[in-house]
Amino acid sequence: MTKTQRSLQIRHVDGGSCNGCEQELAALTGPDYDMQQFGLDIVASPRHADALLATGPVTDTMATAVERVWDAVAAPKLRIAFGDCAAGCGVFQHAYASHGGLDDPDLVIPGCPPDPKAVIQVLRQWLKANALPS
Ligand code: SF4
After folding, report:
1. pTM higher than 0.90 for the full model?
2. Would the CB of 112 count as within 6 Å of ligand 1?
3. How far is the CA of 84 from the centre of ligand 1 (A)?
4. Which CATH number does 8-129 carry?
5. Any long-range contacts for 109-112 (C-beta under 8 Å, 24+ apart)?
6. How confident is the model over 13-72, as pLDDT tens digits?
7. Residue 17 in contact with ligand 1 by CB distance below 6 A
C-alpha cells in the first residue's frame, strides 16, 4: 500500500511573475479560501517546505535563485509550476529574459492566473493520490 501525503508545506518563489499569480496565492491563504484547513500552507523557509512552487516564466536573473531554493528543500520534495508562465506556456514564454518556465515540474497548475478553487482542488487530489517523490 502506498503511503500518501497528508499535508503540503510550500515554499513559493517568484520567478519573474507579473504578480497576478501572487494575488491568487495571497487569496488562497486568506479567509475566503483558507488553504490551511486542507493541510496546505505557504512557509517562509525552504527548510520547512515539502515543495517548491514557482510562479512566472523563471527569468534569467531568477533561475539561480529558484535552483538554490530547490536545493535547500529537503528530500523527498515536489516541484510545482503555478500558472501558465511557470508551466512554460504563458504570455512571457518567448520574452528575451525568459527561461521558459520551471524545469521538470512534478505538478502543473494551469491558468493565467490559476483559479484559487481549482488550485485547492488540484492540490487536494494530488495529496489523496500521491506520496512525495523520493
Ligand atoms: S500565468 Fe498569468 S498571472 Fe501568472 S505570472 Fe504569468 S501572466 Fe502573470
Report:
1. yes
2. yes
3. 6
4. 3.40.50.12280
5. 109/80, 109/81, 109/82, 109/83, 110/83, 110/84, 111/83, 111/84, 112/20, 112/83, 112/84, 112/85
6. 999 999 999 999 999 999 999 999 999 999 999 999 999 999 999 999 999 999 999 999
7. yes
